[in-house]
Amino acid sequence: MLSNREIGLRISSAREIRGLTLDDIAREVGVAKSTIQRYEKGTITKIKLPVLQSIASALNVNPNWLIGNTDDPDAGAGTRQISEDDIKAAFWGGERDLSQEEIDALWAETKDYIAFRTAQRKKKKK
């Protein structure tokens, strides 16, 4: 696991990349702006897993990336990796095999949709 400061840097960079403010994240997580600030600065004394998971959700990043268990912030954004079986079930009821190219294309479209919805949420809050 990363140090509190390193976790904070990841939170801060993900927030800035997404064009979100401390207030945006605080509202989404349900904590004070100062709490998010303390997480970002690494000065929080006790990192709380539910808060960290909520921050990851608000930033649409993998919570395992925040703590350093993976190098890919987008890998399974949320709590778990989306599998080939998940994609098959969602799009074809799992009845036919998909090529890796089809899976990659569907996953790219899914990420684009997530970015679109994140932008919509951001606009709605303004």
- Name the shape in a single word: globular
Which topology of the largest domain does CATH recognise? 434 Repressor (Amino-terminal Domain)
Q: Please state roughly what percent of the residues sit in beta strands, choosing from under 5%, 5-15%, 15-25%, 25-35%, 35-45% or over 45%.
A: under 5%
In the CATH scheme, the class of the largest domain would be Mainly Alpha
Label the CATH architecture of the largest domain.
Orthogonal Bundle
Gyration radius, in Å: 16 Å
Helix fraction by DSSP (H/I, runs of at least 4): 55-70%
Q: What separation lies between the terminal Cα atoms?
A: 35 Å
Rounded average pLDDT: 78
Can you count the beta strands? 0
Quaternary structure state of the chains depicted: single chain
Which segments are poorly predicted (pLDDT under 50) over 5 or more consecutive residues? 77-82
Q: Biggest sheet, open or closed, and with what strands and sense?
A: none
Could you state the CATH homologous superfamily of the largest domain? lambda repressor-like DNA-binding domains
Structural class: mainly alpha
Order of helices and strands: HHHHHHH
